[in-house]
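Students often ask why we bother predicting the structure of a whole assembly rather than each chain alone. The short answer is interfaces. A chain on its own may look different once its partners are present, and contacts between molecules only exist in the joint model. In this exercise we take two input lines together and write out one structure for the complete complex. Read the inputs first and try to guess which parts will touch.
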Amino acid sequence: MNIENTQSQMRKGILEFCILSIIRRGEAYPSDIVEEMKSANLNILEGTLYPLLTRLKNADMLTYRWVESNSGPPRKYFSLTEKGLAFYRELETTWKELANAVDALANRSEKISENP
Amino acid sequence: MKKIININFHSRVIPIEETAYDILRKYVESLKKHFAGEEGADEIVNDIEDRFAELFSDRLKKGATCITDADVNEIINSMGRPEDFDQDENTGTNGHGSSRASSTYAEETSAEQPHRLYRSENDKMLGGVCGGVAAYLRIDSSIVRILFALLTLGFGTGILVYLVLWVVLPPKSMVTNIRKRLYRDTDRRVIGGVASGLAAYFNIEVWIPRIVFCLPLIFGILRSIFRHVWLDFDNSFSFITNGFSGGLTTIYIILWIVLPEARTASEKLEMRGEKVDLESIKNTIKSDLEGFKQKATVVGGEIKQRAEEFGNEMKNRSGGIRKDISSMSGPRNGIGHAIGVLFKAFFLFITAIITFALAMALIGLIFSGGIFLPLKGYFIQGFWQNIMAWAVLLFFLVLPVVGLLTWLIRRIIGARRGSNYLGYTFGSLWTIGLICLIFLAASISRKFTTRNGVSQEIPLSAPANGKLIVKMDDSKPFYMDSDWMGMNWRHRGPFFEITDDSLTLNTVRVNVVKSNDSAWHLQVQKLSRGNSSAAAGRVASQINFPVEQKDSLLLLARGFVITPDQQFHNQQVLVVIQIPVGKKIFLNGNLDDYRWFNINRKWRNNGIDIDWDDESDRGYDTWDSNTEYIMTEHGLERTTTGTNSNPSDREEDQKKNSATDSTKKNSDYRYHKPKTAAAVNAPDPVNNMNKKDPESTATLVLLTNLS
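Now the answer. The structure tokens for the assembled complex follow.
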């Protein structure tokens, strides 16, 4: 049991939730998403992001449109579908419950075995 | 100083250093490999390439003259390499879009359960059972698949085990922790790198597989050394080694085609991989069994739960099956899923059987090649026919088997580097083989268009006691007697005794007819087919069939010899013995060893029709062997002192004869009618039997009464 493994286990559970929460705010371009996550201190490799987006898209959570850009090939801009929104809401509740529970457990300071 | 090349990358011309291009190409390749098993793999790679193109043009716009190694490496680092993805993601394949998603997360995060047997959702060909087992044992799933295939083909149990596991095991997407893959090691290659790849995989010295593949060569050398010492040994042994070496060579070639070459460093590492041996597998299982009891209850409970779920599902669905048909395409829903699974299993089963049969046929072909090769010269003549025969053998027969095996093994080991040209080559070569087959068949069948024969009168003096015994002369020894490939070949076909320059045929038939005077006559009619009447007659006249009389004993040769120059034209010998009325004849049992068959070329379907002793021909055999006959005015009749006194046999024979009377009447002469007066006046041997003697009719009546 090493620390990196546990950390990546923790991270990977929330990646999709994070991506969805960024796209929820409006159409997003993959490198925007990376920047956004970086600014929130959550590093993600771009190479990891593309497959995730494609899978979410294939699961009808996301949709995209091509936007011409002046600095290169046309870009894919992603946005949330109805289904994706519902999925996001579900994840959000789960996350909040989890966060609360984890916080509560982690911040509790009194000893358990005080009154055996 | 570096060379710069221009590449067309996503419809943009990019000037790039050659080394940088190499890095980029390898990276994209590794991406393709990594995502290969996934839905939408092309799209993912495309997106990433798009991003590269964008970043490249960004750099060029900022004033860079070309893309350098550093640029590419920097972008790759920000993208991440496939090795980095593994620890970062693997959430993705967990099947979104279902309500299971949340529970899967809980399951994954709650406890690490790396060691339980699942069906793999991502490493699968059929149901993912093999992939799951491989992941459990941490070995290459190809190995498990090959083992399952062997189990299925060898014992038939593999498919059952598979189906049971399919139903019982829960599906789960898992990281394919293949620690090793089979590659060709071209760094250490001698021919194709197959042996060195195998050595790297199984962690053995490279000379071991090499020796195995070289065995045919070694055997060949040994054989040529000992040829003079062990002549007998050599004869029987060569069939085995022929098949063996042919099989090994085929395996080598198939592996050569199927296995990918280990090119990149990561592939080379994958090829060597971690040490996989029995010990490590044992350890894995052992560490697993420690928590077995607890696990068993968990699994048991789960299976029960699943069964209940399944039952409920079925109950719910049994009402509205029809509505369900539309949703059958969904990945897993009750009946639809089950039907899909069954169809798939059935299809695979059939494919496996066909492949197996074809492989067996190939092996048989290789084995029998040793036997029938000497016969080739009698059917095929001239340069072009030889070329076509080889083309047919290689392209029409061997190639499809190799192709099918290749395809199957590719599927099994999941080779990703497809090559289209291979398929096209296979297809066109097979077509060439087919065309050759047609031409060859046409040119060979020309040899059998017409039939002609010559008749030879041989003086026959009357035997002293009025009884002639006809026997096949078996005083001379056989050179290659009955034990040919373990079967009594002499009794199985018309070809026996092949020497270097001759082939002995025994397509001989003996007919007994009534003489129209008081003398004994003997005619030997030699028949043959050819592309013209004259040619057929010429070949027929070359037949040498010695007949010898020793007073009451008439010895017929065992067969007659043809040479490769004469070719096989279905040469036949018809021996007609004419007996005066009141004389007796005894036909020895070894006359049954003669084989007679006809080759008719029917213009209507333009093919060759070979009859082996068919029913209409049997009409000529108006006698049973080992039985004494007497010639009467009405034809041959059994004498009561026949040595073959098994009554039931005789009754049955006679019943059969009378039953086929009508067909006999219609049956025509297949042989060229002799022109001699004696033969023309000779009574029809067929009609002789139509006039039944009272005895046999009585027996027949008795038999019908009984039944």
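Check your guess against this: The mean pLDDT of chain B is 68.
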